[in-house]
Amino acid sequence: MRIDYKDIDKATILLPLVLTLYFYSIQHNMSYVCNCSCSKKSVLLRRLFVVTCLVLVVALAGVAWDRVEIEAIATVLGGLSNRTKCNSSRAIIPEPMNITDEWIRDCVDELSQIETGPFHTLRPEYALGDCIKLCARCNWHGENDTTTTFFPNWTMAGSYGLLACPHRKRTDEPKYKHIHGGNLEVVEEVLERFGTLPGYERPDPDAILLHLRLGDVIEWSNNTVLEMLTQGGNPAHHKNFHASIKSIHEYLENIRQANVTKVIIVGGSHRPLWYRKSRVYAGCLDKALRRAGLEVNMSLDGGDADKEFYYMAHAKKVVVSAGGYSKLIGKMVERFGGKRYGRTF
């Protein structure tokens, strides 16, 4: 590494330089006086003294230079420890700061005092997961839309319904057979179609994606936000998903198992008015992961469930949360060659 001379400790070298010049001037004056009166031996000794001073200057300069190089190396290593990824195949995970229950309590108290607002949702009540899993609610038209058109094909739910779902209003047979829990072959075909449209993106392959089921699951839970974040909790929407709300500590363990330092959090609710506890839960998780030294990008208001589903399904590493929709995301990640970490429900 190249170090400028200005980085060297100037005082370390300046002092012996001044001393050398001082003794050199003494030697020069004494030599003038001793031209006639001093012996050759004394002149030789004085010159030897000056040479010794010069050697001392060079030695001290080397010590100063070595110290600068050591400090420079330490700086480089310190910077490396804060990077999110090195050139090797294994990420360098920073040492986490202590995330105690007391710190979490303070975070919950702080965020609970901040006035927030409803989730931004492009299609309120849109239930892509229910359509894929159950062939139910595939014909979303809008919150106040009363049309009876069957399976509009401009949403992923509509496309899946047309391809796989039988219905009493249909006059034709669907192309594919519906499978309880979702026909993943059909889901893959729908994703492939929509992936050609503008705005459909894929996440950073070096990051792990955390999907947060927010809204009703969090808002109706009998657990407080503090309990959810420190111990985990029970969602309100279904008894089969007992203890499926994960704590901060569980998420941190999942991330360490994945050996990454980049985290993407995606969450939201199809019912935008259910948001208060959800925003505090997600906000403190975000702050905790950052405090642990991780690089975090969180999106709770993407709005378009189709684009978000495409995005999450193409993650290379994923952690799912409560509900069949999140489980479906995990299945699609594995189908596309990615890996799921942590518990699934």
Please mark out the parts with pLDDT under 50 across 5 or more consecutive residues, or reply none.
1-13, 31-37, 67-89, 143-149
Cα radius of gyration in angstroms: 34 Å
Residue-averaged pLDDT:
78
Query: Number of DSSP strands?
Result: 5
CATH class of the largest domain: Alpha Beta
Distance between the termini: 52 Å
What is the element layout, followed by pairings?
Elements: H1 10-37, H2 40-81, H3 101-112, H4 128-134, H5 156-164, H6 184-194, E1 207-213, H7 216-219, H8 225-231, H9 248-258, E2 262-268, H10 276-291, E3 295-299, H11 305-313, E4 317-319, H12 324-335, E5 339-340
Parallel strand pairs: 1-2, 1-4, 2-3, 4-5
Give a description of the structure.
Strands 3-2-1-4-5 form a five-stranded parallel beta sheet, sandwiched between helices. It is α/β, with parallel strands linked by helices. Helix 3 crosses helix 10. The protein has helices at residues 10-37, 40-81, 101-112, 128-134, 156-164, 184-194, 216-219, 225-231, 248-258, 276-291, 305-313, 324-335; strands at 207-213, 262-268, 295-299, 317-319, 339-340. The protein has three domains: 5-81; 101-119 and 201-340, Rossmann fold; 128-192, no CATH class. The chain is elongated and about 115 Å long. Helices cover 49% and strands 7% of the residues.
Short structural description:
The chain is α/β, with parallel strands linked by helices and 345 residues long. It has helices at residues 10-37, 40-81, 101-112, 128-134, 156-164, 184-194, 216-219, 225-231, 248-258, 276-291, 305-313, 324-335; strands at residues 207-213, 262-268, 295-299, 317-319, 339-340.
